[in-house]
Fold each of these.
Amino acid sequence: MTFVSHCLRSVLCSVACLSALAYGGQSNAAAEEPSSILLENVRVFDGKSPRVSSPTNVLIVGPLIKSISSTALSESDGSVTRIDGGGRVLMPGLIDAHWHSMFLATTPLVGLTSDVGYLNLLAAEQAKATLMRGFTTVRDLGGPAFSLKQATDEGVVPGPRIYPSGAMITVTSGHGDFRMMYELPRVIGGQLTRTEQIGASAVTDTPDEVRIRVREQLMQGATQIKLTAGGGVSSPHSPLDVSTFTLPELRAAVEAAENWGTYVAVHAYTSRAVRTALDAGVKCIEHGHLVDEATAKLMAEKQVWWSLQPFVFDEATNPFSEGSQEAAKKKEVAEGTDRAYALAKKYKIKTAWGSDILFSPILAKGQNAMLTRMVRWYTPAEVLIMATSTNAQLLTMSGKRNPYPGKLGVVEEGAYADLLLVDGNPLENIELIDDPTKNLVVIIKNGAIAKNSLTPAGRTSP
């Protein structure tokens, strides 16, 4: 073995050891008894049943729920933190199935021109705010969120669990291609765009390029792959009616993802874009607000997921300038929302909820309101089930690429202790979720208390 080879092997071994510690390996110093939390006198909404339990006690040991019982529970080993729930409702942490962790606190201009370190600092602050709104898990559908995920997993910064897609994969002039006209023409293998340099998106124009970019995301830790099969609202050169990837290109992505045991989700609004994706074997459609009934029926027959967002057009909160093509596209999409949900319900399509908030920390604060808006189409129980156990089922499609292979989105023994204690019953009054600062009195993620505004007596702090 050469000296260089020996040094390289030593470095790789050191990296492997550090990675093992960071992602679940234990050092001797960490071999101590896990902490315990005992939630007493709570009524449980388990994320699956449209009702709450009678007064119950829930014991958490380490990151998992150990016991749920109507009788008294105790934990003799290690320290126990007792929380008197006072008859409040304990429910699973919320899951947002379409989130963009890195692009909440930026405008497109800031995102394209700022140093990536600054973007990560902004994203870390938003991650904490997301957790404090009660969202303990997000599926990130485009952006360089790998470092943020690592930091939250290691406890460096507070935030939700992240299922990252990495760079959003697009085509020339597709949704996610933010180049200026002076940057044309594109040369395959040439200079990377700014969004490619920071890992926000990747422009591909052949099946071989698609394979490379998909594999690069998987190499970095992507749990699923995101492509843009049709036009989008925020991209300046991407009309909604345009179908982007060809069938061979989409099939290349699906094959590469399936080789890694995971799946492809595509951004698509129109019937043509969705049908091409279905023909390629895509397992999840993001958006789809403009599909016709025949396409919705085909989605049901193929048993794909429909990740829908409750988009409405509100002049007061519209982030795009009046009269712009982006504003017009947003309005067109919003006008299809009612029909999309009606079709999803009619054909009993597996439906996930997500918010898809971008480029505005002010809009990010409305994440909870976007969830409670769903009562326009569903009962409060159906809404909360969708945002917990149903969304959790979608997350399991990442197979062995799943970084959190335990149970999420439910309150049951053996599940991850990602929990919210609500001051009131959200199944009766879902608007309680709209004010997380006041009504989410306890937030627990991975068995650790992220927020507790109760006094020892179980009353809310003033």
Amino acid sequence: MTQSITLRRPDDWHLHLRDGAMLQGVLPETARHFARAIIMPNLIPPVVTHADARAYHARIMAALPEGMSFDPLMVLYLTEGTDPEDVAAAAKSGLVKAVKLYPAGATTNSSSGVRDFNKVRPVLEKMAEIGLPLCVHGEVTDPNVDIFDREAVFIDTVLDPLRRAIPGLRVVMEHITTSQGVEYARAGGDDLAATITTHHLIINRNHILSGGIKPHYYCLPVAKRETHRLALRAAATSGDARFFLGTDSAPHVDAAKEQACGCAGCFTATNTMPLLAHVFEEDDALDKLEAFTSLNGPAFYRLPVNEANMTLTKGAPAEWPDKILTEAGPVTVFDPGFPVHWHVAD
């Protein structure tokens, strides 16, 4: 049996760091294991312009503990007032690697998102011209659509028409949660990819609701049926270059999660790599782990792979803190609900 695996240092292609005290508290959890991460821009106020991205990048680097190496890859938040030329300048500078589409009201801090897609078409056409990826939160927000169907409906009614209308637009379907998402990504060609989170490989909707509500498993997009989870695992462990890791690690203080109307998000930055080694070993696919965590993402984003390596070893049950204590408040670390024997060695 395999007792260790060495791979290129991984990247996280979908990460929430927040700001202020929360940023300072959670950044080390990512920087400990990941070389780079695509940084979500849904702050209050959001990161909309090139200047906003420069300022947020500076705050992230100021919060990075001495001795840690980490490269935040910045993203602009797409609004109906986004300036195409500002986007082009931000991309040309090398600072901004993508633009994020949030349908208005889809998730945390998405009220500034897009309602009328015709108003953002000039930005999307400019992005297609310069090859800048669009990262998509793929859910409709129509209250008449069941929450478990919102991803599939988005693909059919928004994403596919959008890609047909703007050929050449490079799109990342973020945190896919359905077999329909897997199938669409597989059929999409070289300009389409999809990220998959750690927690969606492990939990289905029963984990959230069976035996009592588990607020720390509640996320958006919400976990779906077991058949969808298995489709995600098959995609992630296949080695297919269209799929790569985006943890969507999303810190909220416990007080915001554990209330009558709790926030959505799972915090997985601390233990993602041991959890993924466990999942890939279960599926007899440890040889595909490097592609998912370290190779496929850089290839799509047209970036070099990391030079440094990471080694994971198998041994006694792994331990990690139940909570990360930040100046903003405690943040609960995702609990897979089973023993994990993989450890990050270096």
